[in-house]
Amino acid sequence: MDLSYFIFLSSGLFLGWSLGANDAANVFGTAVGTKMLRFKTAATIASICIILGAVFGGSGTSRTLVELGSVNELAGAFMVALSAALAVYWMVNNGTPVSTTQAIVGSIVGWNFYSNHHTDTTILAKIVSTWIICPVLSGIIAICIYLIIKQYIKHSQMHIIHQDLYTRLGLIAACAFGAYALGANNIANVMGVFVDAAPFHEVTIGYMKLSGTQILFFIGGLAISSGVFTYSQKIIKTIGNDVMSMSPIIAWIVVVAQSLVLFLFASESIKNFLEGYNIPSLPLVPVSSSQAVIGAVIGIGIAKGGRGIRWSLLSKVSLGWITTPIVSALICFIFLFVLENVFNLIVYH
After folding, report:
1. Does residue 161 sit within a domain?
2. Beta strands in the chain (DSSP E)
3. Contact (Cβ atoms closer than 8 angstroms) between residue 26 and residue 293
4. Confidence check: pLDDT of 146 > 90
5. Measured distance CA(79)–CA(85) in Å, rounded
6. 4 vs 271, which has greater pLDDT?
7. Is residue 67 part of a domain?
8. Which of 89, 195, 235, 278 lies at a 20 to 30 A Cα distance from 321?
9. 141 sits in which H/E element
């Protein structure tokens, strides 16, 4: 197995670490921020489920990124992933939740420009449209769940101790589902550009077979998990309670809403089922868990009359969403030039 592949893959692993550091907050930041779950407990559950989602549910969204730009040299793939990772790391270091999807899309477009490869505007438009659809859909789902739960609590006779227990159990289940959906939806951002060059072969473990791509996604899932444990607590502070003060039940609603959105954009089964009955379906596109969770928070804030939302912080986060793909594309374009002209590496063909 060629050692150079793993050297180039290191940028994808760095991006996976950055994604874990940034997006873990979207999965369990609200649960930790409301002190319903301890950080280590939430991080352990999330890490296991992220890996499972990446391995068993990540194939659909990766094909969409390949259609946007088929990065055809390892050195080029290295720089695409590294550029996205640097953009994400810069934002994370400032305590701003960002979109890894926007970062990798910006990098791919930067590679397309540098290599004179055509950027499929139809695919790009489909991806960009989800940057609007994702938070809106998450907000709508959150509002619906909030209104249902509000009516249920109003008419139920549940003791407060039982309510606390069920809320904790619900948060654990929601975090597990959210982490699985995150792994399935976002592993394409981390490992998608390396799929064509992956040197791994199919392996059999008991009754289970893993393809070479699934092994690659497993490695990417480990990188994401390392980011969850080592650097996600800074972002959790922002998502946990800084955008809007949340009760444990509101935290549960936020996690469920964003998890459903990520899962809907990653599930090939749901897409095939709907299309089988000629029902319009959502595209299999990596979407931003940051956008989904903040869409859910805003949705609940609107349902509560718009009270308590810290709009100044949201403007900072929104600016990060706009800046990320531009910064990522510029970094990629500049450093592709450096790799080709200073280090004499082939970055495209």
Report:
1. yes
2. 203-205, 208-210
3. yes
4. yes
5. 10
6. 271
7. yes
8. 195
9. helix 121-155
